[in-house]
Amino acid sequence: MRKPDTIEHLYLDFDGFFASVEQLRNPALRGRPIGIVPYEGGRSCIIACSREAKAHGVKNIMMVDEAKRICRDLILVPQKPDLYRRAHNELISQIGSVIPVDQVKSIDELSCKLDEGQRADPAGVAAAIKRTIRYNIGASITCSIGFAANRHLAKIAGGTQKPDGISIWRPEAMPAPLLKLPLDDIPGIGKRMEIRLAKAGITTMAALLATQPKQLRALWNNVTGERLWYALHGYAIEAPPTERGMFGHARVLPPDARTLTDAKTISRLLLVKAARRVRRAGYYTKSITLWMQYYEGSGFDSLTLPQVNDDQALLTALASLWERLTSRLTSKTRVMRIGVSLGDLTTANHRQLDFLLDDDSERQKWERLGSALDRLNIKYGKTVASVGFWEPPPGGNVGGKISFTRIPSAEDFW
Question: What pTM did the predictor assign?
Answer without folding.
Answer: 0.83
